[in-house]
Structure formats: structure tokens, C-alpha cells
């Protein structure tokens, strides 16, 4: 154990003015585009009424090499922005008017909720659409937008921020740690695919996702409230689930299909959304776009249905939980092949007390540890005692103390939900001063009640 004080951390406590100054040196400035509202009619906003946001959306799509939305498609995107309350940060060349010009840097943030433990939600600040134009990279554009966003998130009472990343090396420096992983799996479905357990009760039927109404949304919400790491669905998700995307297909839909499980009393207990990849794809493949089940019978019923679709030789799912459940469900687990196993949800702790008091703990654990947290942006820096008793956590800020473990805020975010183990981080050399006994105690305290998983991206 090492004696630590807060002095080192408080030197960093003020939000730095540096990032904006660095932008100015490059003739750039940061500007905020506040969230927009839907028109009173409830229809989509007209993109021509929101020129700065429309330019921002286009710039972000280009940053990801996506098709640039125009006309009614852009209106629908703006409607989703309005429903989520998305705010846009843009970095512009000095003298440029955001209403006439695309920004050189895009960044979107908005407030939502995340399941911290089954049945418990905390506010989360979600970050997305981060791009910097190729000609303006490595001039501090990202750093300026992120610093501003995290300061606003903390000031508005968000205990954590969250994002998903295209590259795993970008966000650690801003204090984001890997809190949940996902698997991209492929299942060989040639021949009859049997389940390992008994035949599921209830029945599964195909249904048009456009006729599902609120069913999928309600199921998804009930499952995500029990799934640590999952956030409230975005407006864009809702459009996709109901196959309402305005596309070049003139409103005929994108070919999405749904399967619904009803229990023996006819109650809907689970549903899957899936898409056929086309006859030109070999082997013939369906992609699962969403799969939610409230019961084991619903899960097994949907798996049996999806794995035994006529003419289909492969089923794939890119956002599959990293928990081994599918392999355990099948009589032949080797049918499941993991194509990619990757970091998914990144969490950044902004308020240590609110984050760790906002989740539940194993009811039988009664323990306390002192954590010394380093945070270059200051938000979570300090000495914190985490005490766990009767399933609840309590966090006290200490002025000076013997720390049981010293760690960067990035590792704190990775540990928060229990989706990354302290033992793993310690063996990777990322927890200072922690004995094996301490890491075991930390793991016992933080173990999640259910596997940590992000059900939908944002
Ligand atoms: C990733 C991206 C947003 C970075 O923007 P940027 O303005 O060049 O970043 P900054 O100049 O603010 O750099 C901030 C820090 O991150 C580092 N960094 C930036 N991009 C990085 C990357 N891809 N990998 C590793 N480090 C990176 C910089 O070296 C710098 O480090 P330092 O502060 O320790 O010196 C930009 O390269 C981009 O738009 N990429 C394509 C779209 C994309 O991947 N977006 C991310 C979506 S999740």
C-alpha cells in the first residue's frame, strides 16, 4: 500500500483552457448547435429550416464514408436528432458560418439512461458521430470537442459518459475504459440444428416488423432494463426496428423480417429481427439485427427458429453477447464460430460517488476498499472509499489515506459495471499497488448480477 494525497490530482482539477487555445492557433473555433425540436405537427423537421445541423450531419456521414442523406432522408435523420435531444459540437474554420459550411470536426452528445444493475438506471452522457476531416487531423480538434463535452456532462449531473469506438486506441486518453465486449458470431446451420436442452414451450411465428407496433420496443426495453451496460434505445433504433427508414426503396421497406415467441398463454415473450443477405451470398445467410427474450423458453424457441430456417446455411449476429449462452444452447456448440471478439461499450466515470452508489452489489458481500483515482481532466480524481454492505454501495471522499489500489480513471470505467475484472487489469499492469487479495476483493464487490452487454449501439 502507498500513501497518496489528493494534491497531485487537484493540480489537474480545473477544466483546461488549453484545447480551445490550440484550436485558435490553427485558425479554428468550436461552436455548439443546440438540440432542435420537431415541428408542432409531429412530422419530421424540414432540413432547410436547420442549415447548420444539416451541414453537420452531412459532414459526419462523410467522416464515416457513408452515403450523405438529402431531402426526406435528411428530414428523418433530423427527426431522430430531435427525439433524442442530440446536441452537436462543430469545429469550424475562423470566419466560416455554420449555416453555410460543413464543420471540419463533428461530435454529438446527448443525455440518456443506462442500466447499472438489473432494475437500476443511471443518467448517461452518450457521445457519438465523432469525426475530423482528413485535412484537419492532429490539431487538437477531437481533444477540444471532448474536453468541452465532458465538462458539460459533469456540470449537468451525469455520473458517467459512454461511447462505442471505431478504433480502440482513441478514447483511453480521455478516460474511457472498456466496460463491455461483444462477439460477431456465425453459426453453421446446414442440416437440422438441435438444442442441447428440452424442447422450448410456446411457439414462434414470423411477423412483419411493420405490424409489430410497440411489441419489439416494449420487449427490448424490458430486457435492457435488466441488462447492465445497456442504454435506452435511440430514435434511430426505433425507425430501424419498425423498418420505417426512408430509403431509395420508396417506402417499401428494407426486407427486415421478425419472429415472435408467444408463451403457452399467448403472451409475447421474445422477438428477433433478421435480414436475408441475398441469393448472391454464399453460403446463404441471414443476419440477426436484434434478439430479445424475457424467458429461457423464448430464447430457446427463437434460437431453434432462426437456426432451422429453410434454405439458410448460415446465421450471423454482429452484436452478440460475450457470454457463451448460444454455444451452451446448441447440441453442437462447434457450430458457433466467433469471427470477431471486440471491445464495445466504453465508459468514462465523471462522478465516482454517483456512479458507484448508482449500482447494486452482491447481497452477501460486506467489504470496503480505498481507491486512488488519477484523472488528467480532474472529474474523478481523488481518494475514494467504496464500502459495500447489504447489496448497496457507499462512496466517501477522503483527503488523504492509505490506498488499497491506485488506478487511472480509464480502469475505473472498465471496472464500474463488473464487465472487466480487476484481476485481468492487475495482471495487465494497470492497477498499481494492488495485492492479489485486493483484486480478488474488488472483483467480489463488483461482480455483476447479470452479464454486461450493450444491446443497441448509439
Ligand atoms: C479519430 C479522430 C476523430 C481524431 O481526431 P483528431 O482531431 O486528429 O485528434 P486530436 O488532434 O484531438 O488528438 C487527440 C489525441 O488523440 C490522439 N489520436 C487521435 N486519433 C488517434 C487514433 N486514431 N489512434 C490513436 N491516437 C489518436 C492524438 O495523437 C492526440 O494525442 P495527444 O493528445 O496525446 O497528443 C480522427 O482521426 C477521425 O476523424 N477519424 C475517422 C473517424 C473516426 O474514426 N471517428 C471515431 C469514431 S468513434
From TrEMBL:
Domain Enhanced intracellular survival protein residue range list: 352-451
InterPro entries documented for this protein: Acetyltransf_17, Acetyltransferase_Eis, Acyl_CoA_acyltransferase, Eis_dom, NAcTrfase_Eis, SCP2_sterol-bd_dom_sf
Pfam families: Acetyltransf_17, Acetyltransf_9, SCP2_2
UniProt entry tagged with the keyword Lipid metabolism: no
Residues annotated as binding acetyl-CoA: 130-132, 138-143, 166-167
GO molecular function, one term: aminoglycoside N-acetyltransferase activity
Highest taxon of source: Bacteria
Span of domain Eis-like acetyltransferase: 241-347
Keywords: Acyltransferase, Transferase
One GO BP: aminoglycoside antibiotic catabolic process
Active site: 171 (proton donor), 458 (proton acceptor)
Keyword Zinc-finger among UniProt keywords: no
Subunit-structure text: Homohexamer; trimer of dimers.
Organism of origin: Micrococcus cohnii
HAMAP family: Eis
Similarity remark: Belongs to the acetyltransferase Eis family.
Entry protein name: Putative acetyltransferase
